[in-house]
Amino acid sequence: MKKTILLTQNGLSEKVSKWLFVIVGISNSINGIGYLIDTPLTNWGLRLGVFLLASGILIAILGLIVFNPTNVLAPKFVIDENGIQIRGTLTVKTKTINWNDIKEITYKSFELDFLLNDNSSKLIILRTNGETSVEIKKSIREIADKKSINIIGG
Question: What is the pLDDT of residues 93-110, one digit of tens each?
Fold first, then answer.
């Protein structure tokens, strides 16, 4: 079993969120091109046109990245039989915790505290909404129960 949970949930489906970002990005870019073509190229018109064009392209690209569970840069939890992979934001490296290294897991409100076999601890803060936090914890519990890993809290 492999479960991928995006951390960018906003109450809308992944497809709707992705295409909303893409449409807003394209709209911004078209508006920016309109400013560059239609207005006299004063300092203000030029700056605004370039800003709208660049931000539109960035918004569209972000929509394609952060709402795509198969993209390696998307903020997500990937839970499978081998371990847990966590990528909290676009700018951090993916953290991997193997099931074999976990002694105990403590669930806190929007936090996961992993006690490892070497008695060190890894605290993962869930920067997401309540529904996604519960989904992550349920998915972890399913596999942890199979692997006889103790979970404290709920």
Answer: 999 999 999 999 999 988
On the question of pLDDT at 11 being above 80, the answer is no
Q: Is 81 exposed, middle or buried (0-12, 13-18, 19+ CB in 10 A)?
A: exposed
How many Cα atoms within 13 Å fall on the side-chain side of residue 11?
A: 0
For residues 98 and 143, state if they share a domain. yes
CATH number at residue 124: 2.30.29.30
Closest by CA position to 88, among listed 122, 57, 118: 122
Alpha helix stretches (DSSP H) within the chain = 14-38, 43-66, 130-146
Residue 105 lies in a domain: yes
